[in-house]
Amino acid sequence: MFYSKLYAPTLREAPSDADIISAKLMIRSGMIRKVASGLYEFLPLGLRALRKVENIIRREMNAAGGQEVVLPLIFPKELWIETGRWNVYGKELFRLKDRKDAEFCLAPTAEEGITDLVRKDVKSYKQLPVMFYQFGTKFRDEIRPRFGIMRAREFLMKDAYSFHADDADLEKYYKTMFDAYTNICSRCGFKFRAVEAASGAIGGSFSHEFMVLAEAGEEEIAHCECGYGANTEKAECLEIKYPKETENAAAEVYTPSIGSVEEVSKFLKISAEKFIKTLIYVSDGQPAAVLVRGDFEVNEIKLQSLLGSIELSLADDKTIEEATGAPCGFAGPVNLKKKIKVIADLSVINLQNAVVGANKKDYHLKDVNVNRDFKYDIAADVRKIIKGDACPKCKTGKIDFARGIEIGHCFKLGTKYSKSMNATYLDTNGKENLMVMGCYGIGVTRILAATIEQSHDDNGIIWPDNIAPFEVIIVPVNFADAKTKEATEKIYKELSSKGIDVLIDDRDERAGIKFKDADLIGIPYRITIGEKNLANGNVEFKARKNSKEAVELLKPQEAVNKIISIYKR
Amino acid sequence: MFYSKLYAPTLREAPSDADIISAKLMIRSGMIRKVASGLYEFLPLGLRALRKVENIIRREMNAAGGQEVVLPLIFPKELWIETGRWNVYGKELFRLKDRKDAEFCLAPTAEEGITDLVRKDVKSYKQLPVMFYQFGTKFRDEIRPRFGIMRAREFLMKDAYSFHADDADLEKYYKTMFDAYTNICSRCGFKFRAVEAASGAIGGSFSHEFMVLAEAGEEEIAHCECGYGANTEKAECLEIKYPKETENAAAEVYTPSIGSVEEVSKFLKISAEKFIKTLIYVSDGQPAAVLVRGDFEVNEIKLQSLLGSIELSLADDKTIEEATGAPCGFAGPVNLKKKIKVIADLSVINLQNAVVGANKKDYHLKDVNVNRDFKYDIAADVRKIIKGDACPKCKTGKIDFARGIEIGHCFKLGTKYSKSMNATYLDTNGKENLMVMGCYGIGVTRILAATIEQSHDDNGIIWPDNIAPFEVIIVPVNFADAKTKEATEKIYKELSSKGIDVLIDDRDERAGIKFKDADLIGIPYRITIGEKNLANGNVEFKARKNSKEAVELLKPQEAVNKIISIYKR
């Protein structure tokens, strides 16, 4: 395609309300325009990239046996009443009335629609499992639309729903979809992690978020090079083992008015890693002592989940004194005044010659040893993960932290929707059963934003090979020159015949402007045809991701072959 | 693809609310399902056909230099206030509010959106002309949604908008788009007519409707084999010439109490074709006599347009007597009592020896001749066209009537939207001008319904080659038979390698059921592989459109070659 025929108005500056690098660059490169808060138009370049992402996803959905469908965008209230979501879903749901005052919503997801579709025609175990997917506009009335198309009110989503005879079949299929999502992320060129996550308003019992690692991410995740990833609040911490030491005799030390681990450590000149911090919590009215290493923090989400507590909080001073016999700052596991539950984090159960509070004002105990000097009731992972912790998956890698952009989500929904909507099938014995469901979403438009967050430089976007709106840009320095034109057209023809998307910058502009635009819109490979080089039988080849200097002089055919081999065409 | 892996639940009976053959067949063949009044789901087969139509349209839009974009579906009220459509558009417009009570509509068309997009970035004549198109869901709260996806409340539309420096450029481009629409209709396999039409609520001064000829059409059109088509109310009638006769002397004849042409014709034994019917109209208060041949009817739309009248009606008895001197039934152009305007239809200006009312109770005149016995003020086409009339375009063909389904519409919008939204550009002299606009819509989902209305039989759909969800269905009578399976796979492979969409009916069903389903879903070509035929080296080949009996026995390779040659792959 000729650049002169392409509507791609580039801007020197992004508008002031573009609040994130991907939004700035998509607007500057003429890929999107803003209509109103959270509402965007896609221009040709943006749409081309979007369609590439769509096709990557479609291919994987088809490979996973999916059936592509299109559901309406407006859904009647009645279906949403059946599942109860009409009343539960808050202001994020756009609602409207028709001319007869019947109520509808603009679908933010389509569980109701798809379950209604399935219950109409699927009656027998022979028709199961079945998976449906669609690419559809979704609507969410965000309280604060921002970040360009990343958190828009209208966006393109691929949503998929699978229906199964039983849990076992769903679990098996979940793995297939998990792999499909992994493939999609890889083909989009993402550095990403599949993160175990708690489910949101959609419901269900088990789920993974697919997180693209990028500064602009709204969530913090702990990850390892081995592929492990988890929300930092859910990331597992392993049991810590220490070199064997000779156990010394425990001894009381005077620590006048010094309570915090940091102060005591400094005072005693003993590293905080040798401390056992004792925190008194109250779980549903019952006090409990929680022991973590001095340099770690308690993860209250893990603790709450361990204890099954409805209400959990740190104890007040009075409760601490009643339980330990000492004021706050001197609690320890040895000789607690009151018999309370003692929970030892996996960081302390192997600690030797440790420092603990003495349960006595202004005193600590040193050289305390677990089992010898005190016993615990439960050993469990109840601490916050930190950078450098051992990876719970590969055991050898070190945990690092990153921000993540959620671009996909796999859920096991179970029978939440099939139950409320009575989606049943007859099994081999003619018995009626509820179908078991999974659901799988991807923010298609969001993938573009996430890609740019992860892949850009000061000059603009750096599209990954597979989702670039054009794969190659040919820049004839002077397209009016007959030989340049001929060489341009020859290269164009050869690449196009292999199905490679080529843009020719035929504009009557200076080379500098053409390079700037090419960099801004981020085409992965550039072939520059200058008269002088051409006279020597050469063209310039440059990959967008490489630095300015990494320009190669190649024969035109070499440049063509190089691109064909990159794209494996 | 294997039929067993395809979700295409076929039904023996259509639901009772399917009110048109295309709706019945799309539901029975598992292409669509109804969610609620005017809201439909597309299942895989329907979606495949839809995508084919989309691609036919996309190809033509790109060839016409179009820029594909995607606009939001929700638009803020402010844009619609600018053009005044917020207040003009009635209950068909779905309106909604966001959480901040800001008002929006669901776009039924996108003139506001596209004009807003263009005025942001198009500033110079150098950027014109430019044409944008999109495939987008459209919403119209129809007062009576019906006819399946033909008149739905949510549907897929391709809407396109062009922007020009002046009228001349638009007129030139309009022709390009007209041709593109003609190509689209041809490639979809339609019998169709491009019909000049008055514009609706969208506005504009000139427009064509693309009408598919089918019984279920909501409009009546006059058409000729030469390609001419027009709304019957707008179709032009040519001047009629008659063989030269000797002019007889006019004579009064007594026609007691006989007023109507039919009665007088019978009474005088003179054909109605020799009568000049004189009707007295009142146009904005002024009476006028309108003369048409006895066997024709006055077309009041043409008359009103000719006279430029705001109010037009047949005169009452008193006005008739005042103008003619006789009661209703005896009016004629000779010796009118009052000097009123006489308008002669092109069917009477050449009539010789005609019968007319005598402007005298119970009398007619015969052998009246134009110019000799009376004069008229205006000769014009003011009659209704009838079947058998000469075609106004080719002059030789005969007009026939048909019902038409409107699937597309081309409009010259002019400056209606650019003016209200201030979409201007600077011309070569640096002067600010309004852009001139055209708009071009196609009902993409409606095309599927129109296709089926035009192409079906008692057994089901007959998809045209280019938009069939699958192009070939292979029916192995017994897929469990190893040789059958091998032959099936070989044919499948060869056809697929040419990009032909093949469905293999691998289901464990009787051949009769497979044939019934293949006919119902309407795959254009069927290859049946039976063990007995295969033993003789043959397979059966049948085109869906041909009768049951038209089955050919071919070698597998012959069948493959035949299909490849049909699809020119």
Can you offer a commentary on this structure?
The structure is a homodimer of 569-residue chains. Chain A is built from 15 helices and 31 strands. Helix content of chain A is 27%, strand content 28%. The first copy, chain A, is an alpha+beta fold and 569 residues long. At the A-B interface, strand 1, strand 2, helix 2, strand 4 and helix 5 of A face strand 1, strand 2, helix 2, strand 4 and helix 5 of B.
Percent helix of chain A: 25-40%
Describe the largest sheet of chain A: 9 strands, mixed
Quaternary status: homodimer
Which two chains share the most extensive interface? Answer: A-B, 51 and 51 residues
Structural class of chain A: alpha+beta
* Rg estimate of chain A, integer Å: 30 Å
Descriptive terms for the model:
9-stranded mixed sheet, YbaK protein, 5-stranded mixed sheet, 3 domains, 28% strand, BirA Bifunctional Protein, domain 2, homodimer, Rossmann fold, alpha+beta, 27% helix, 569 residues
SSE blueprint and pairings:
The structure is a homodimer of 569-residue chains.
Chain A: H1 21-28, E1 32-36, E2 39-42, H2 44-63, E3 66-68, E4 74-76, H3 77-83, H4 85-88, E5 95-97, E6 103-106, H5 111-121, E7 130-139, E8 154-164, H6 167-187, E9 192-196, E10 206-213, E11 219-223, E12 229-231, E13 251-254, H7 261-268, E14 276-283, E15 286-293, H8 300-307, E16 312-314, H9 317-324, E17 341-345, E18 354-357, E19 363-368, E20 378-380, E21 400-414, H10 416-420, E22 424-426, E23 432-434, E24 436-443, H11 444-454, E25 456-457, E26 460-461, E27 472-476, H12 482-496, E28 502-504, H13 511-521, E29 525-529, H14 531-535, E30 539-543, E31 552-554, H15 556-566
